[in-house]
Amino acid sequence: MTDLADSPWWLIGVTVLAALLLSVLPMPALLEPYQPDWLALVVIYWCLTTPERFGPGTAWCCGIVMDALHGTLLGQHALALLIIASLALRFRLQVRVFPIVQQSLTVALLLAVHAFILIWIDGVVGVFIGGVARAWPVLASALAWPLVVIGLDWIRERSGNGEHVPG
């Protein structure tokens, strides 16, 4: 039986690239406000399942790439992802034993922290995107969490380098 830390680097890299691609692909205007934060979901997933290979430093690097892709203040997403990756690592043993619904609620809390950090940084630099516009992606991401877990668990099992994580 393989260890959870045996997820290959290429698999982690491909999923991060897919999440970055999903974050910049245009969506229909009606669905745009509800786009899940795919990169944050992938960062949380890998921090929970393979902390030996994916941690705050990797999350920070992912955030820098996200900042460059979206043209935001350099380091904004990096800081937010670094903090939620640290929190996910801190509570990973507890979160992994939660049922999937409770995991979704925990992920929603992590993503609320992520959104708060982005709002705070935007406020400091004078960019205002307020109202409920910042809440919809958190809700959409929490609803997408079970699909992310099922999909990435399935991919890890098919790669032959992971075992199913109950959730």
Core attributes:
167 residues, single chain, mainly alpha
Number of strands: 0
Strand content: under 5%
Domain unit count: 1
- Assign a percent range to the helix content: 55-70%
How would the global form be characterised? globular
CA radius of gyration is 15 Å
- Global structural class: mainly alpha
Poorly predicted runs of 5 or more residues:
1-5, 162-167
Summarize the biggest pleated sheet.
Answer: none
* Secondary-structure element pattern, one letter each: HHHHHHH
Mean pLDDT: 90
Structure explained in plain terms:
This protein has one domain. It has 167 residues and is mainly alpha-helical. The longest helix has 26 residues. The protein is globular. The protein has seven helices and no strands.
Brief synopsis:
With 167 residues, the chain is mainly α. The protein has 7 helices and no strands.
Element layout with pairings:
Layout: H1 9-24, H2 38-49, H3 56-70, H4 76-90, H5 92-96, H6 100-125, H7 135-158
